[in-house]
Design brief:
Elements: H1 2-11, H2 14-25, H3 30-94
Helix pairs in contact: 2-3
Pfam families: Dpy-30
Keywords: Coiled coil
Family: Belongs to the dpy-30 family.
Length: about 100
């Protein structure tokens, strides 16, 4: 029973798909076919995971960029308000 759990955890549905493909195609060398199928599956899965991680990273970078832009706009607005107060105070003291 533990072996079954191990296989499910490690292979998931992949092994069942691979064996179904071997049964459907019935290649002359089923072991080699199965090995190539599993290799291709793993290669594709790794590429998909890498793409998923890159999308996450890009989204995080985009979110950080938006946050930095907001902060820059807030600082610019604050600087403008300080400048306006300074000019009003300077004008009032000149009178």
């Amino acid at each position: 029973m533990m072996e079954t759990e191990y296989l499910k955890r490690c292979f998931g549905n992949c092994l069942a798909q691979a064996l179904a493909e071997v049964a459907k195609i019935q290649p002359s060398d089923p072991i080699e076919y199965l090995a190539h199928w599993l290799y291709h599956y793993r290669k594709t899965a790794k590429a998909k995971e890498k793409e998923r991680q890159e999308k996450i990273q890009l989204q995080q970078e985009y979110d950080n960029s938006l946050e930095e832009t907001k902060m820059a706009e807030m600082l610019k607005q604050e600087e403008y308000e300080i400048q306006q107060k300074y000019e009003r105070c300077h004008q009032a003291s000149a009178l």
